[in-house]
Amino acid sequence: MATSSYAFSALGSKRIDFDLLLRLVPILVEVGWDVFNVRKPDANGWNAESLSRLAAFFTPSEPKSEPTIPMTDGTHDATCNCFSIRPSYAPLAPEAESNTKRKLTVRQGSEVLTLAFSEIAFTVTSTKPDGKAGKRKHATTLYHIIWAEVSGATLTVSFVEKKEKARSVCIKATLHGSTEAEAAEWVEDLLNAAYKDIKRNKKLKVFVNPFSGKGKSVELFNQIVKPILDHGKCFLDITFTTHRKHAVEVAREISLDYDAIVVASGDGLSHEIFNGFAEHENPRAAFAIPLAPVPTGSGNGCCLSLLGLEDGFDPTLATLNVLKGKYMRSDLCSVTQDGRRTISYMSVAIGLMADIDIGTEHLRWMGDTRFIYGFLRGIIRQRPYPIRISLKVSERDKHEMHETYQAAWHKQDDDVETCWDDLLPSEKLPPLRYSEAETDGWEDFDVPTLYFYSGLIPYVGRDLLQWPLALPSDGLIDIAVQETASVMSLLGGMGIAPQGGQYWSNTQHFFKVHAYRIKASGTGVLAIDGENNPCNDIQVEVHKGMGAFLSPSGRFGVHFDYPAPGSKK
Ligand SMILES: Nc1ncnc2c1ncn2[C@@H]1O[C@H](COP(=O)(O)OP(=O)(O)OP(=O)(O)O)[C@@H](O)[C@H]1O
């Protein structure tokens, strides 16, 4: 769980983590200086005007009846003091291994080891001098096997092991009691089981953005990502991006024989790649190549959405997803603004959430804590954004949407009909279905808006499961509109936002739509997939299954089950 969200959960439950509070203090101080325009105390102590501004803020002026999100219901996990979500993918317990094991004995120094695998698990056990099994040294699932090979009398097996943190392990040992041919057969059986239905020796286009996140992408790539892909015997064609839109330039010319595209960056680079695909001479084939993000950015919402909250910030497990992930079709949308069409795969934000993303660029050194800073600053300043929202609604009742989601989540199918199926030979991209003049079936939604946020994937970052009902290819856009509300209710919502609990808040409105329009003021920021755009009018429509990703489960890595207020769960 994200440390920052842990801190807010902690505030809600009166449990204090001093380390985290220490981390938050400078942020709160910064926010305080900024919001209240308070002068720091000088030699004469506090300035009286500053003190009266602070006092005015802490005097409640809003009605007490403002609904807040309940903090006490749900599946409570005492270990992290949070509400737990069932991940759609989790490593299987090694105990689940079946009895039919294939074993190989090797020697490493003076130690004799038994390597064994079943249909789902792989174990390494030391062997006592009397031949009996000794201590279990490693245990993992076959999903976590990277590679195995035998050369002469030397056996090499590499895998990812997840104890507290995931790390890659490589065992190099000498055959003990078996021939090279017997070992080669064992190796081939292991690889067949570990790569069942998954292509080996993938040809990968790799993008590394040295600028993303805290600027550590190259280091993370060289230390973690590349060694795993090399062990996995992949062919790598690497581009270190040197400027903005570099990935667009490469993607528009991309060779179509790559098995996947590895994106070692944050969410912005995938946006560039999709928009490069849109300019490719064969967009249909380009969009069919799956993206596999590796989280070296700030928010990494896409990686979190694919791997889940627990694993989505882990470069090791994200790299394993490159090797082992399942193909997953994903909806994309077209954002039309001033006659220009942009492809978006993640989000469109106006208001507070756009300010957070774009307005905290100068705080990159904070990592994703900069979003908490931006949020606190924004909810204290709290100003409604003058926009007019018009929606082509498919669903709007929160409880009904939740029920539809639960049923659809369990029925997710690999074989999805996509927007490409209806394309005429003359068309390169899916055509836009809604003209700007069309009003039939469109409805206005008018509230004092703190932020408008539309999305196609569940997570924005570790601290916010913004669109908990998002499904990869339901052909619908998830919309969240946050009304202006009391500071305390918005702060209360932060503690449960990593689990999507704010979905049930009365001041946050949700819709599933086919398309929408925003009439914007022209001032401020409009963020498309976290990238800065002019805040002019937009029209947005979805394209079912237009793009593709790799994901460990072939679904999003989150299953939303945060209980509605008053439910018995
Ligand atoms: N060499 C470079 N120098 C400066 N900017 C670059 C370079 N390469 C790519 N970029 C730009 O970096 C920007 C940020 O990338 P990205 O969004 O992937 O990371 P992030 O903002 O840290 O993470 P997130 O979007 O997950 O919060 C993109 O707009 C991209 O165009």
Automatic annotation (TrEMBL):
Mind listing the UniProt keywords for this protein, alphabetically?
Answer: Kinase, Transferase
Where on the tree of life does the source sit, at the highest rank? Eukaryota
Query: Which residues are in the DAGKc domain?
Result: 199-339
- SMART domains assigned: DAGKc
The entry's cellular-component GO terms read: cytoplasm; membrane
InterPro entries recorded for this chain?
Answer: ATP-NAD_kinase_N, Diacylglycerol_kinase_cat_dom, DUF7493, Lipid_Phosphate_FormReg, NAD/diacylglycerol_kinase_sf
Q: Name one GO biological process term.
A: sphingosine biosynthetic process
Query: What GO molecular functions are on record for this protein?
Result: lipid kinase activity; phosphotransferase activity, alcohol group as acceptor
Q: Which PANTHER family does the record cross-reference, listed alphabetically?
A: ACYLGLYCEROL KINASE, MITOCHONDRIAL, SPHINGOSINE KINASE
Name of this chain's protein: ATP-NAD kinase-like domain-containing protein
Which species is listed as the source?
A: Thelephora terrestris
